[in-house]
Design goal:
Layout: H1 12-21, E1 29-33, H2 39-42, E2 43-46, H3 49-58, E3 64-65, E4 67-70, E5 78-79, E6 85-86, E7 110-111, H4 155-161, H5 189-194, H6 222-225, E8 236-237, H7 240-254, E9 258-263, E10 267-272, E11 280-285, E12 292-298, H8 314-320, H9 322-327, H10 333-344, H11 350-365, H12 368-374, H13 379-389, H14 392-395, E13 398-401, H15 407-414, E14 419-422, H16 424-431, H17 438-449, H18 453-466, H19 468-475, H20 499-507, H21 516-540, H22 547-559, E15 563-569, E16 572-577, E17 580-585, E18 590-591, H23 595-599, H24 604-612, H25 627-633
Parallel strand pairs: 13-14
Antiparallel strand pairs: 1-2, 1-4, 3-7, 5-6, 8-12, 9-10, 10-11, 11-12, 15-16, 16-17, 17-18
Helix pairs in contact: 8-11, 17-18, 18-19
């Protein structure tokens, strides 16, 4: 026993004197173990004073220093401090104490600030400093830690560091400490000394070449075992993240709530939230390998199931039910709450479920702000699309809209030569708010549907006679934007309403509330599948003209029975139909009614002239309606 040991003045010779006082020869080698490191990597030999200060710094604030002594050869003679040679080398040369009289049942320990060895006391100094664990994971961070006294269990010494017949040289004695005690700071000495890796068998300080029997500990398979996790002592995990996830799932399924005494990247200690419950688990990294292992566990709870479990967070719900929310993103909160109650037997709030749905949606569809930042990447795709479509002068673009504000100016600025039509259904919806009646409605639709200018003007005069205010209201709208008689013929389209866009809008309804990039990707994939279906369907079709166009042509052929064509020379014909006469030019593929010009499908007047010319009407269909063109578009 060495008294008056001060850490500020402690030297190599002081430690050697302490070792000699315990009966070891002065030729013995001294070692210390780094806190939290196993024997393979944590053992350090003390040669000189250079190794003493790092040891004291490493154990700063801790009560016990783990030291090892390897007994050396006994000296042939011992010289006392007064210069006398002792005949009996067993007598201690420092204080003359015979080692056989020293009580060796006590601990070989350095008690910093209290005692060194037996009951005498020498102050070493150093303040106890509590180092908080890495609580970087918000789901596992604890708001507060209840006071807890760790029951000391020295079984780890027998299992990991000493043989079955060795003396327990690290036996702990309860002492009053001036500073905060280890119990107050939730430090379990046996767990601290065993981290991060424990050996299955004691090896000599200088290494051992002897083979040891390896213990086969169970390994946790995240893909299989996570559905119903059960933890045992020695169980191995891929990393600390998988361990935390499995521990949470295990406790939630059991109906218990836990808190984390230590929650670091290299070690985790958790206990039950109920103070009187004995559940406890400790796990840490294994030595010399990247594996997380359960080192000690008391698996059974002494408390009852809890229904207000803080482990069931919105993040936990989002991760656990990610597939359900992917398949049914619009699930109602009430039904979702009942399902969680049935499966987990816990109470969750509606706000938790709203947040869980939001987090799951961010995982599935991506963050909205981030996606808008990525929108620039789509500009290249738009540029390629514009090159493929061609310019307005090349293709003669036509747009139809519902008269949204700002579109007129936008089209004038970006595409001044493009045709811009208004949806007639939206025009009538505004018209009938002021001008009601079926007679005005029918006159309005006839004026819009007329193929020729003179027919359109005739119907507009009827509207003026019925209601002058209605006539003036319609005249404010440019005629080329709602009258078929004023439409351009380059687009081969005579539609008056925006049903095509409305149908497409309904087709992509599911994607409309997604973030911008996710929406575009959803639409792209949907159209990709649709194109493939259309292409495969047309490949099975044996006709020359597309089926819907062929049906329209059949209708015109049937109507042609009321028309009578007269040959006028050079593929030109005059066709009488009821009280009107129309000029048909087969070479120019035009008709006075303008319907053949607008659509590219021979009208009833053109069919009558084609029949008189002994030809087939489908020979005069515009090439855009053929099977070959269709397949070329959808390839």
């Amino acid at each position: 026993m060495i008294e008056n040991l001060d850490s500020d003045y402690c030297s190599f010779f002081d430690l050697r004197e302490m070792v000699i006082a315990y009966g070891y020869p002065c030729t013995s080698s001294m070692y210390y173990l780094l806190p939290g490191v196993g024997l393979h990597r944590g053992i350090r030999e003390i040669h000189t004073d250079k190794e003493v200060m790092p040891m004291l710094d490493a154990y700063n604030g801790l009560e016990v220093i783990a030291m090892y002594v390897e007994e050396g050869p006994k000296p042939l003679m011992v010289l006392t401090p007064k210069g006398k040679v002792l005949k009996d080398p067993e007598v201690n040369p420092i204080n003359g104490v015979n080692p056989v009289d020293v009580d060796m049942s006590g601990p070989v320990e350095v008690d910093k600030g209290r005692q060194v060895g037996g009951e005498g006391g020498g102050q070493v100094g150093g303040d106890y400093e509590h180092v908080e664990g890495d609580e970087s994971d918000p789901d596992y961070a604890e708001e507060d830690d209840d006071d807890e006294t760790d029951s000391y269990n020295p079984s780890w010494l027998d299992e990991d560091l000493e043989g079955p017949d060795d003396d327990d040289i690290f036996k702990r004695k309860d002492k009053k400490v001036d500073e905060q005690s280890a119990e107050e700071l939730n430090i379990n000495i046996d767990e601290w000394l065993s981290d991060p890796g424990d050996d299955d068998e004691l090896q000599t300080l200088r290494g051992s070449g002897e083979d040891s029997n390896q213990i086969n500990h169970p390994e946790f398979n995240e893909d299989v075992d996570m559905k119903n996790p059960v933890m045992k002592k020695g169980m191995k995990f891929t990393n600390v993240t998988v361990f935390r996830k499995a521990l949470r799932e295990w406790q939630v399924q059991g109906g218990y709530d836990i808190k984390f005494v230590k929650n670091e990247s290299t070690r985790v200690t958790a206990i039950c939230k109920e103070k009187k419950c004995g559940f406890r688990i400790h796990a840490s990294n294994m030595q010399c390998e990247k594996t997380f292992q359960v080192k000690s566990i008391i698996p059974n709870h002494d408390c009852h199931r809890t229904y207000n479990n803080h482990l069931v967070t919105s993040t936990y719900i989002a991760n656990k039910y990610i597939n359900k929310l992917r398949d049914d993103p619009y699930v109602k909160v009430d039904s979702f709450e009942k399902e969680i109650r049935r499966e987990l037997t816990v109470d969750v709030s509606k706000w938790q479920l709203y947040r869980a749905k939001k987090k799951a949606r961010e995982v599935i569809d991506g963050d909205m702000v981030e996606q808008y930042n990525r929108l620039v990447d789509y500009l290249e795709t738009v540029r390629l699309l514009m090159e493929d479509i061609g310019s307005v002068e090349q293709r003669g673009w036509s747009f139809i809209s519902d008269r949204q504000k700002g579109l007129l100016e936008t089209f004038k600025d970006l595409m001044p030569n493009a045709e811009h039509r208004f949806c007639m259904r939206h025009i009538y919806a505004n018209f009938r708010k002021v001008f009601k009646g079926k007679e005005l409605k029918d006159a309005l639709w006839r004026a819009a549907s007329a193929g020729t200018v003179w027919e359109h003007e005739a119907y507009m005069k009827k509207i003026e006679k019925m209601d002058g205010a209605a006539y003036n209201w319609l005249k404010k709208i440019p005629q080329e934007q709602w009258c078929r008689s004023h439409f351009r013929t380059s687009s081969r389209c005579d539609i008056l309403v925006n049903n095509l866009s409305e149908s497409f809008n309904s087709y992509i309804l599911e994607a409309r509330d997604k973030p911008i990039v996710s929406m575009l990707e959803w639409i792209r994939r949907k159209l990709m599948s649709r194109f493939q279906v259309k292409r495969m369907g047309m490949e099975k079709y044996t006709g020359t003209i597309c089926p819907k166009i062929d049906k329209k042509l059949e209708v015109n052929i049937d109507k042609a029975r009321d028309c009578f064509a007269h040959f006028a020379g050079e593929f030109k014909f005059e066709v009488d139909c009821h009280d009107q006469t129309y000029m048909v030019d087969l070479k120019a593929m035009t008709c006075g009614c303008r319907m053949w010009d607008l659509t590219g499908i021979p009208c009833k007047h053109a069919v009558s002239a084609i029949t008189l010319n002994k030809q087939k009407p489908d020979e005069y269909i515009h090439p855009c309606y053929t099977r070959d063109t269709y397949l070329n578009v959808y390839k």
